C-alpha cells in the first residue's frame, strides 16, 4: 500500500514495505484516494514525487490476485477489472494540477512501468532496476489507453517497438539514451536527492496548477480522450 507525506510544497507518495508493490483493486483505491488528497491540497509551487521502498517500484498488476479467482475465465475477468480501474489512476496523474516525478530506485514492470510513464518525469537508478513491459512474454495484449500512453510519451517508434514487441528490459543509462527517462543516478540516495532537487526547481516556478494540467492534457490528446478527460478553456494570464 501507499503513504502520502507533505514537506513544504512537495508531496511524497510512497509504496511502503519490501514486496513487489503489485497493483490490485485495493492498491488502486489507495492510490486514487491519495491523489485526490494531493489535488485538493495543491497550491502554486506544489510537486508530486512518487517513490517506493525496497527493490521494486512496482512489478505491475497482481496476477496472484487474478488467479485466485480459481478459473481461467475468473482470472481473465479479474485482470480486465484491474485494467479498467487503473485507467482512473492514469487519468488522475494526467489531470493533476502540478508537475509529477516518478523516482525509481527499483524495477518498474508492466503496470509499474505504465504508472511511472504516467508522470511528467522519470528519474531512475543506474546500478539496479529495469523498465520492462512483460505483456508480450506473458501472452497478454495491451489496453488501448496504455498503447496511447506509450505512443504519445515515447516519440521514437523503434523504442516503442523494442519495449512492447521485444519485451526489452532497459536499465538506467539505456533508458536515458532512448529518451524514456530524464536521468539516471548511482544508488538509491542519489536518485531520491535528484528527484527532490528537480521538484524544488520546478516548484520555484509556481505555475498555476489548473493551467498546467490543461496544457499537459493538450500535449497528450489521444491519451486524454481514452481515459475520459475533457478540456477546459482557461485564461488567467499574468500580465
Written overview of the protein:
- The chain is an alpha/beta fold and 239 residues long.
- It has one domain (2-226): 2-enoyl-CoA Hydratase, Chain A, domain 1 (Alpha-Beta Complex), CATH 3.90.226.
- The chain is 48% helix and 17% strand.
- The chain is built from eleven helices and ten strands.
- Strands 1-2-3-5-7-10 form a six-stranded mixed beta sheet, with helices on both faces.
- Helix 1 (25-41) links the parallel strand 2 and strand 3.
- Helix 1 runs parallel beside helix 3.
- The longest helix is centred in the middle third of the chain and has 23 residues, at 72-94.
Task: Note the topology.
Layout: E1 2-7, E2 10-15, H1 25-41, E3 47-52, E4 56-58, H2 63-67, H3 72-94, E5 100-104, E6 107-109, H4 111-117, E7 121-125, E8 131-132, H5 135-138, H6 144-153, H7 157-165, E9 169-170, H8 172-177, E10 183-185, H9 188-203, H10 209-219, H11 221-226
Parallel strand pairs: 2-3, 3-5, 4-6, 5-7, 6-8, 7-10
Antiparallel strand pairs: 1-2, 8-9
Helix pairs in contact: 1-3
InterPro entries: ClpP/crotonase-like_dom_sf, Enoyl-CoA_hydra/iso
Pfam family, one: ECH_1
Organism: Hibiscus sabdariffa (roselle)
Amino acid at each position: 500500500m501507499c503513504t502520502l507525506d507533505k514537506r513544504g510544497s512537495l508531496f511524497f507518495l510512497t509504496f511502503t514495505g519490501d514486496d513487489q508493490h503489485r497493483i490490485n483493486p485495493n492498491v488502486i483505491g489507495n492510490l486514487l484516494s491519495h491523489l485526490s488528497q494531493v489535488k485538493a491540497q495543491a497550491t502554486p509551487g506544489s510537486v508530486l514525487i512518487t517513490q517506493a521502498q525496497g527493490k521494486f517500484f512496482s512489478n505491475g498488476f497482481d496476477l496472484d490476485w487474478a488467479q485466485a479467482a480459481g478459473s481461467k475465465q475468473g482470472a481473465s475477468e479479474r485482470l480486465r477489472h484491474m485494467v479498467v480501474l487503473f485507467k482512473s489512476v492514469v487519468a488522475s496523474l494526467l489531470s493533476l494540477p502540478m508537475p509529477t516525478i516518478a523516482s525509481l530506485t527499483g524495477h518498474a514492470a508492466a503496470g509499474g512501468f505504465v504508472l511511472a510513464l504516467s508522470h511528467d518525469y522519470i528519474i531512475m537508478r543506474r546500478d539496479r532496476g529495469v523498465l520492462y513491459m512483460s505483456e508480450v512474454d506473458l501472452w497478454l495484449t495491451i489496453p488501448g489507453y496504455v498503447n496511447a500512453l506509450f505512443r504519445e510519451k515515447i516519440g521514437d517508434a523503434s523504442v516503442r517497438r523494442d519495449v512492447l514487441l521485444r519485451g526489452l528490459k532497459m536499465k538506467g543509462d539505456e533508458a536515458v539514451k532512448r529518451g524514456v527517462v530524464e536521468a539516471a543516478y548511482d544508488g538509491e540516495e542519489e536518485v531520491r536527492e535528484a528527484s527532490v532537487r528537480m521538484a524544488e526547481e520546478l516548484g520555484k516556478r509556481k505555475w498555476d496548477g489548473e493551467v498546467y494540467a490543461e496544457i499537459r492534457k493538450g500535449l497528450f490528446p489521444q491519451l486524454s480522450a481514452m481515459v475520459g478527460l475533457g478540456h477546459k478553456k482557461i485564461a488567467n494570464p499574468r500580465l
